């Protein structure tokens, strides 16, 4: 378990920069945890504090019960063997082959030639690069370079893998294949993975939980599916809306949406579902219970880590009292809902 307690980080110089301003986070064993934020939010500083490449100004970094901020350089070097890291620009050694890049950390700890061969061969197979082992980095695509980076990071059998914008330099298809690989090794090796990114699509694709950082402060954190269906902070809303279109579809806008109820209008409501509730017959229950006609104007169901979530935009018809009673019933349900306005009854 990684426990970050009240981490602050100031960069010196004439104009002092407070990059982290009291960060507390717990990351559980075996989970894929995403940290998202805009440029300058403090993401890189935070992830580099986890393996103490950056020393926090104050606070503690506790991994499996050991406080890294209290360790000397020798102890830190030992500890870092259990923490692998991959980078946006791969950081490979250009004069070494794929094989020798992966072997490098093993050479540093004095592993025997045989140990190195057996480990590197199994890592080459894991990342699908056996046929590229004699190539140099310049002969590889971006995705292949990142696979080498991943294999090298796994060479010392870490418990934790830190990913610093690991897919930001890759095209969407290559990004997907690298994210699939990370998901696969997370499951196979029960590896804890911490990812920093500015792309919500990366979070949606593989993370179990997410924290959003802004100005060196965690604004919100939670399970990805909860955050997607009910973001609280403005920053998280902005990120969620970058991958889920929350604008009213044009066809609905054209109906003429008013913010005032009226006898000749019906209520426009957005329902937000997640998990197995998506299978419940909510709409038919509403119709039966309130004898209120309901039309579905828009619907969308998506999946995060095999968990369904979705949105439905409906109109509640009937007289104004029926609409109000039906809304009160919806509010009691374990789903999110919001009134978007009122549209003409004859839509
Ligand atoms: N070595 C440094 N010296 C001084 N200021 C720094 C240093 N590194 C980062 N900063 C400042 O700290 C703040 C956080 O930077 P950081 O690189 O952690 O943000 P980030 O979220 O990773 O941004 P990006 O996505 O652009 O890489 C920024 O204001 C940055 O200018």
Write the layout of secondary structure elements.
Layout: E1 2-11, E2 17-27, E3 32-36, H1 43-50, E4 58-63, E5 66-67, H2 73-80, E6 83-87, H3 98-108, H4 113-126, H5 142-154, E7 160-164, H6 172-189, E8 192-197, H7 200-206, E9 209-214, E10 217-223, H8 224-229, H9 234-243, H10 250-253, E11 265-274, H11 282-290, E12 294-304, E13 307-316, H12 320-332, E14 336-344
Parallel strand pairs: 3-8, 3-9, 6-7, 7-8
Antiparallel strand pairs: 1-2, 1-4, 4-5, 9-10, 11-13, 11-14, 12-13
Task: Describe what you observe in this structure.
This protein is an alpha/beta fold and 347 residues long. It has two domains: 2-243, 3-Layer(aba) Sandwich (Rossmann fold); 250-344, Alpha-Beta Plaits (2-Layer Sandwich), CATH 3.30.70.260. 35% of the residues lie in helices and 30% in strands. It has twelve helices and 14 strands. It has a six-stranded mixed beta sheet, with helices on both faces. β12 (294-304) and β13 form a beta hairpin. α3 (98-108) crosses α4 (113-126), α3 (98-108) packs parallel to α5 (142-154) and α4 (113-126) packs across α5. It is elongated and about 80 Å long. It starts with a strand and ends with a strand. The model has no long low-confidence stretch (mean pLDDT 92). The structure holds adenosine-5'-triphosphate (ATP). The site of adenosine-5'-triphosphate has 12 residues, from β2 and α1.
């Amino acid at each position: 378990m990684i426990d970050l307690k009240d981490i602050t980080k100031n960069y010196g110089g004439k104009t002092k920069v407070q990059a982290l301003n009291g960060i507390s986070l717990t990351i559980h064993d075996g989970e894929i945890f995403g940290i998202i934020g805009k440029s300058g939010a403090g993401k890189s500083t935070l992830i580099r504090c986890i393996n103490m490449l950056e020393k926090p100004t104050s606070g503690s970094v506790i991994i499996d019960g050991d406080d890294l901020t209290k360790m000397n350089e020798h102890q830190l070097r030992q500890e870092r063997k259990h923490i692998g890291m991959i980078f946006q620009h791969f950081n490979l050694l250009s004069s070494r082959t794929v094989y020798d890049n992966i072997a490098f950390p093993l050479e540093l700890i004095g592993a025997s030639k045989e140990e190195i061969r057996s480990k590197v061969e199994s890592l080459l197979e894991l990342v699908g690069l056996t046929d590229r082992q004699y190539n140099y980095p310049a002969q590889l695509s971006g995705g292949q370079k990142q696979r080498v980076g991943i294999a090298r990071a796994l060479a010392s059998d870490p418990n934790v893998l830190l990913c610093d914008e690991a897919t930001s330099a890759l095209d969407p298809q290559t990004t997907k294949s690298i994210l699939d690989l990370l998901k696969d090794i997370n499951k196979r090796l029960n590896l804890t993975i911490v990812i920093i990114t500015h792309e919500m699509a990366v979070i949606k694709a593989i993370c179990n939980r997410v924290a959003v950082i802004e100005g060196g402060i965690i604004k919100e954190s939670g399970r990805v599916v909860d955050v997607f269906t009910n973001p609280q902070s403005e920053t998280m809303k902005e990120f969620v809306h970058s991958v889920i279109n929350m604008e009213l579809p044009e066809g609905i806008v054209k109906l003429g949406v008013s913010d005032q109820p009226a006898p000749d209008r019906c209520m426009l409501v957005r329902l937000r579902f997640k998990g197995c509730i998506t299978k419940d017959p909510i709409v038919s229950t509403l119709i039966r219970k309130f004898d209120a006609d309901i039309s579905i104007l828009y619907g969308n169901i998506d999946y995060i880590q095999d968990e369904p979530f979705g949105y439905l935009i409906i109109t509640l018809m009937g007289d104004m009292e029926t609409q109000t009673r039906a809304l009160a019933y919806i509010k009691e349900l374990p789903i999110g809902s919001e009134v978007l306005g009122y549209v003409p009854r004859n839509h």
